[in-house]
Amino acid sequence: xxxxxxxxxxxxxxxxxxxxxxxxxxxxxxxxxxxxxxxxxxxxxxxxxxxxxxxxxxxxxxxxxxxxxxxxxxxxxxxxxxxxxxxxxxxxxxxxxxxxxxxxxxxxxxxxxxxxxxxx
Length: 120
Known about the structure:
mainly beta; 0% helix; globular
């Protein structure tokens, strides 16, 4: 099994930056794609970004494109989300997720989430 633990959330003013981290442990060799999702107040959980196993391919939601950058360090079993030019509508609980080599199309491993609050 794989465990994911997020960190780096907090309170920031609009226009500011935060970097989220997600550390994986356990059967890390089985991890394939890693990604970030978020759930804002009264909203459904939504996709934010994902990065391939090698780190060479990334995909972003339109709402964060050009402002957020996802990356991963496989030597540290960690994925990052650099968030710049933050807006109040980015306020949400941010979740790290992973797929595995045996189930590459299923986000079946999730972290506990970290709160990001952007004040106007």
